[in-house]
Amino acid sequence: MKQYNFIASIKELPTHIKREIRESNFRIAATIILCISMSIFIFILSVFVNHRVRKFLVSDELYFPPITPTLSHSSSCNVSSSSSTKNGGLREWIAPSEMWHLMTDKELLWRASMVPSIAEFPYKRTPKVAFMFLTRGRLPLAPFWEMFFKDHEGFFSIYLHTSPEFTEEAPESSVFYKRRIPSKPVQWGRATMIDAERRLLANALLDFSNERFILLSETCIPLFNFTTTYTYLFNSNHSYLSSFDDPRRMGRGRYNQRMWPAISLSDWRKGSQWFEVHRKLAIQVISDVTYYPIFKDHCKPPCYMDEHYLPTLVTKVCPGLTSNRTITWVDWSGGGSHPTRFVRKDVTEGFLNQVRYGFNCSYNGGDMSSICFLFARKFHPNTLQSLLQMAPRLLGFNSSSA
Asked: Where are the transmembrane segments (predicted)?
């Protein structure tokens, strides 16, 4: 019997071995499957936890707003702190604090041409006069202008277009301190002169408080005090840009037929380079892309763009916006290509009063006025001391600012 059981066991051994092998493989496979499942579960769990943590960290409860530096506010901008803070830097958009920038002329003109669609300003605003000086270097009559501007901060802005190589800075106490704009070389009678004028206008237009824009040279002087000048301009319904039809050789004789048909001979005008314009007309000037290229190509000496471009442009696009006269007096009685230059011996009270009150003109298209000119040129640097001495008594300037 024992022998029989042993033999039977021997016979069943392969079957038993096979069964053990199958069970062992099953356990191994089950172990592998379990490990893989656990790995997948742990991975899914980690992703879920990570997602919840990130969502929690960026939730509203734990959001920290960025720290915004507090802006200082000067009277010249007249922007309340609440307005500037609420609008996130509105002040720098409506009144750049720095004159220097990296914009190209094309970029500058484009930005300056922007006009708000909403007429009401969202901040306190005092209208200002932009005084734009076209000069080669320092202003030789700067002390006289300092007297003119004294105690009227917040009612004017100053812009200096100088030769690019001029880098001298005015004293920090001066109204001309850091008022130079990015400039380029200028040639008299060439298109670069108009480029400089449009560059000045565009930079001044970046300040939305500037409403009147006056172009001046380094030889210009004011003929009245600041209050009189400011009142005269802001009570006026017109700009002051002379534009007239000159039938002489130096007028119509400079017209180039290649300008036709965009500009005809009947459109052709002449006028003074030294203008004063309000904001609406200033935007028209710097936005012109139609007539400027024609002038640049076809108005070259003996055609001078500074005498014909703006007068013709105004006649073409907005003839009703100007009084057709200038408010900067010059003496052309001597003939030639340039007006008379005045030196020290010329500057007397009688001479200045003749320029100030010796003319009659229409003001606002109505009553006649004896004040026709607010500025005059060309004054030599050696006239400075005489002007400073007469300024308090004759012009009403504050003598303490000399």
From this structure: 28-49
